[in-house]
UniProtKB/TrEMBL annotation:
Superkingdom: Bacteria
Any one GO CC term of the record: membrane
SUPFAM superfamilies for this protein: alpha/beta-Hydrolases
PANTHER family tied to this protein: HYDROLASE, PUTATIVE (AFU_ORTHOLOGUE AFUA_2G14860)-RELATED, MONOACYLGLYCEROL LIPASE
Name of protein: Pimeloyl-ACP methyl ester carboxylesterase
Organism of derivation: Flavisolibacter ginsengisoli DSM 18119
Boundaries of every AB hydrolase-1 domain copy: 21-117, 183-235
Length: 258
């Protein structure tokens, strides 16, 4: 399905459905296709919002996790969303974490899947020569348990980004920022109910990372999905959506008085 991209000032975003906001933050090579199944499922009950993160539009000084978190904060303020369920995949999860730690007031719950912020295997020690399609194909396949998920369309999308010298510089800047910005000492300050959904076969942020998030974030619950890599909402969409559905419904139930 095609979604219309809305604009307000410097912000570009998708907004589908009505109800409590469910805001989705994409990763470093994230695209709308990453969230297609999730948007279609939840737009019937929630206002599903996907801000386009300015990965390549910030000046190099602010091309960082912190710079993206500031953008998200300004976006939520501008749109005046309240009681936000904030979901982030990969770098998007990291941005969500930084935002919640600095500006918790609008956030009702946090959902992390394959999030950086503690540890991640990046592009590796060497960065690709521009124009190395085979390298990009292999790196895209590593994102998934099933390499067939790395369709030609998806690989072409990533390849197109890496053909641009300035974009490659900014990808490296963001990847290095994510590695430097370790949140281990701050995670116990998160008060929001937090859902962690992880692929059992994630090689970029392996399962031990999820367990560490679960240990450090006080009000968190952890679910693993089998035969699943770094993008559960794409690779095992039905199971991911069922877990998220249950979590959000539980939050909306009134507390029982004993």
């Amino acid at each position: 399905m095609q979604y219309s991209i809305k604009e307000q000032g410097k912000f570009k975003y998708i907004e589908e459905g009505e109800g409590e906001p469910l805001v989705l933050l994409h990763g470093l090579f994230g695209a709308l296709s990453n969230f297609k199944d999730l948007i279609e499922h939840f737009r019937l009950q929630y206002k599903v919002v996907v801000p386009m993160l300015p990965l390549f539009d910030l000046d190099i000084l602010h091309t960082s996790v912190g710079g993206l978190a500031k953008h998200v904060n300004k976006f939520l303020e501008t749109r005046d969303y309240k009681n936000v369920n904030l979901l982030g995949n990969s770098l998007g999860g990291h941005v969500g974490l930084v935002h919640v730690l600095k500006h918790p007031e609008r956030i009702k719950s946090l959902i992390l899947t394959g999030s950086s912020g503690l540890f991640e295997n990046g592009m590796g020690d060497t960065y690709p020569r521009r124009g190395d399609y085979e390298y990009i194909r292999k790196k895209t396949e590593v994102t998934f348990y099933d390499p067939k998920m790395a369709t030609k369309e998806l690989v072409d999308e990533v390849f197109e980004i890496t053909r641009n010298r300035l974009k490659v510089i900014k990808i490296i800047a963001l990847a290095k920022s994510a590695i430097r910005n370790n949140l281990g000492d701050e995670l116990n300050n998160i008060k929001q109910p937090t859902l962690l959904v992880w692929g059992n076969n994630d090689t970029i942020t392996p399962p031990f990372v999820a367990r560490e998030f679960n240990r450090l974030i006080p009000n968190s619950e952890l679910h693993f999905i089998d035969q699943c890599g770094h993008a559960p909402m794409m690779e095992q969409a039905a199971e991911f959506n069922a877990i998220l559905d249950k979590f959000l419904k539980k939050l909306s139930q009134p507390a029982t008085v004993v």
